[in-house]
Each structure stands twice: as structure tokens, then as C-alpha cells.
Amino acid sequence: MTKTLNIGMIGYGFMGRAHSNAYAQVNHFFDLEYRPVLKAVCARDREKAQVFAAKWGYESVETDWRELIARKDIDAVDICVPNNLHKEIAVAAAAAGKAILCEKPLAMNSAEGEEMCRAVEAAGVPNMVWYNYRRVPAVTFAKQIVDSGKLGKIFHYRANFLQDWTISADLPQGGTALWRLDVAAAGSGVTGDLLAHCIDTALWINGSITSVTAMTETFVKERKHVLTGKVEKVGIDDACAFLCRFANGSLGLFESTRYARGHKALYTFEVNGERASLKWDLHDLHRLQYFDHRDEGTLRGWRSIHVTDGEHPYMGKWWVPGLAIGYEHSFIHQVADFLDGLAKGQPVGPTFRDALETQKVCDAVLASARSGAWTNVS
Ligand SMILES: NC(=O)c1ccc[n+]([C@@H]2O[C@H](COP(=O)([O-])OP(=O)(O)OC[C@H]3O[C@@H](n4cnc5c(N)ncnc54)[C@H](O)[C@@H]3O)[C@@H](O)[C@H]2O)c1
Q: How many CB atoms within 10 Å of residue 236?
């Protein structure tokens, strides 16, 4: 370990904590040339930022992200703020020559995403988007199984992301905790927030999506806005379902909602091929279900693989076979891969360009929901 990477993190909420934990842990478990240094955290409230900095070990605090980006001692900018700020920060960080780690979705829409891609590519700075589910070992393993050809020709890809936390009509929109309900801050509702994860995994495992037909619904039409104090129209999609066609000929079925009473973060996906199928469930994230039609007839059935063996992706870095790891480890794996890529001078996916593909599918889904027509992903 010889090189340092000075991190400047903007935003210290849910993802700020997940990323800070990843930076703190990564070199304990992975042998890497680079070591992240928690140089500065940026948030608008200095006092709160100082409390966060002290708790997580950041050396300094900024209250204006422009000041953070201007600092010579910052090598990489980590964008952990609401979606409407991603583009402006990323474009400025790229112009300043910083490596950029940006939270998902890449942007509010693909026009913004294109601009962000152009900025990082013109500046030649390393860039990555935090679609962290790719680095859950069971999900990485699913990708390896599909790539190995064990499933044969793929017929179906199916994914859900179900929650239930916005059912109450009394829940306001906007402001610190509830920016996800405010279209001006989030860009969209479950499509950009939850389905974007499902789409990223799907594109990674099953290839491009060519066309979509979608429906969305906003069940609660008006909510009080925290920032204005007024009751305002809700502009986000509360629920979204879409059908799609993949370039490999398979059919896709995706659903997401925040109105599925009883479900908190039920991200599931299933892939059905001519010879075998697999499925995964975030609530049981260290398991991968696998069915192989070539198994002996009377013993044929779904295998529940506990993805904790040293030979499984990333697991050789952790404890001993049989001991599970969790959600936070997906971020640690992503940082480890990013630092490894930096040492080798290689891009690490999902790059901004990869994440733009997800953004384009989200845009097509929302356009189809508006028009009611099948829409090509362009
Ligand atoms: N990868 C994932 O699984 C995942 C999970 C949750 C959120 N996210 C994404 O991460 C991003 C942040 O989401 P979150 O859940 O951490 O939100 P959050 O509300 O918990 O935190 C947002 C942070 O941004 C700060 N902030 C807002 N405006 C700012 C400004 N102008 N300057 C500096 N700081 C500012 C807030 O103070 C807060 O600390 C979003 O893009 C979201 O979509 C990704």
C-alpha cells in the first residue's frame, strides 16, 4: 500500500455513511496499492458536518461543494447528494481533474447524463456510479453463471423492487428526508430510485434493452411540501411496471412500487434459460437459487446456494465458508474494485457511460408511461 487517494465526500446521509464505512474498511480486507484517505466531508450545516466528520474520521469540513472541488488536496469527489445536484457537481469535478464516484441514478435524465459522460471523458478522469448491487457476491455469481452459458438461451428476465413507506397521504414531500417524493430533487419516483437498480443489474447480466412499454401511477396526487409549507402536486411516479424486449431476444418484466404493504426493500430478480434458471432476493442476499434441468430427474429441484464459499466472488476476502456478509459489503467491494482499477489504469463498471444506458431505459419507460405506446430505447 503506497498510494493515497484523498476523498472529498459531498452529502453525509444514508449513502454518505455507507461509503464512509466502505473507505474505512476496504484496506483491512483487500490488498490494494491505493488507500482512501477521508480528507473532507461537505454539507451545508457546518456543525452537523463536524459531528459527522468526528464520528467517521474525516480530517476537515466544507459547507460549499465548490470549495471542496477547488481544493488541491482532494483527489476524488464522491457525490452522495440528491439527484438534481449530480450533474452540476460532476461536471465541475471533472473540469477540476478529480476522479468521480457518483451515486445512482447518474442524473435526472439522459440529457444530463450525456453531458456528464462528455465531461468525464473529455477530462479523462476515472469515474464510477454506485450501482452497488452488482457487488453482492450472489449477484456477481449470477452474472458469472449466465456468462458461462449454463442457462443456455435466455427467455425471460423478471425483476421487482417493492417498498411500502409512502402509503400515508399525510407524508409530506421535499426537504432533507423526503426529497425522493419531490420531482424537482429526484427527477422521477420509483423509476429512477428503485427500478434503476433493477435495470442496471439486468443490463449487466442480460445485455441491452431495446424497447419498453410501461405504466406508472401516482396514488397520492398532492402532498404538503416541506420547503414551501404549501400543498403541492406530486410529480413523481409512486409505482411503475414495464415490459421490455432485450437485444438477445428475451422478454423482460419489471415492477416497482412504494405501495406494496409489507415489503420494505424486496429487490428480486429471476432469469429463465433453456437449460437452467436462477433467482435472487435482497432479503436473503447471500443465497442464490439455481435450477438445472440437466440434473438427474428424480433429484431435480431448486438448489439454494449459500454464496459464502471462498471460491465465490469476493468471499475469499472475508471470514470462513458458511459465514454470511451483508449489504454494506457491496460498497466495500465496489471501492476495492475502483481502487484496483485506478492502480491498473483501467475503467471500472458501472462507469458514467454504463450508467447512461440505465438512464436511457428509465427515460424510455417514463416516455412510454406518458404516451401509452411501445418506445424504443435510444
Ligand atoms: N446505491 C444505493 O443503493 C443508494 C441508496 C440510497 C440512495 N442512493 C442515492 O444516493 C444519493 C443520496 O441519497 P441518500 O439516501 O444518501 O440521501 P440522504 O437524504 O440520506 O442524504 C442526502 C445528503 O445530501 C446533503 N445535501 C443536500 N443538498 C446539499 C448541498 N447543496 N450541498 C451539500 N450537501 C447537500 C444532505 O444534507 C444529506 O446529507 C441519491 O442520489 C440517491 O439516489 C443510492
A: 25
Instruction: Report whether residue 65 contacts ligand 1, using a CB cutoff of 6 Å.
Output: yes
Cβ neighbour number for residue 158 with a 10 Å cutoff: 17
Cα(364) to centroid(ligand 1), Å: 25
Each residue of 192-251: pLDDT tens digit? 999 999 999 999 999 999 999 999 999 999 999 999 999 999 999 999 999 999 999 999
Strands 76-79 and 3-10: parallel
Q: Is 223 in the pocket of ligand 1 (CB under 6 A)?
A: no
Q: Collapsing DSSP states into helix, strand and coil, what is residue 157?
A: strand
Q: 216 CB under 6 A from ligand 1? A: no
CA–centroid distance, residue 92 to ligand 1 (Å) = 18
81 touches ligand 1 (CB under 6 Å): yes
Point out the ligand 1 atom lying closest to the alpha carbon of residue 83: 41
Q: Which residue is it, cell 471462498? A: 310
C-alpha cell at 283: 432479503
Which residues lie below 8 Å from residue 189, measured CB to CB, with a gap of 6+? 180, 181, 183, 216, 218, 236, 237, 238, 239, 240, 258
For the chain, how long is the longest CA-to-CA vector? Answer: 66
Is the pTM higher than 0.90? The answer reads yes
- CA-nearest of 206, 196, 61 to 132 is 196
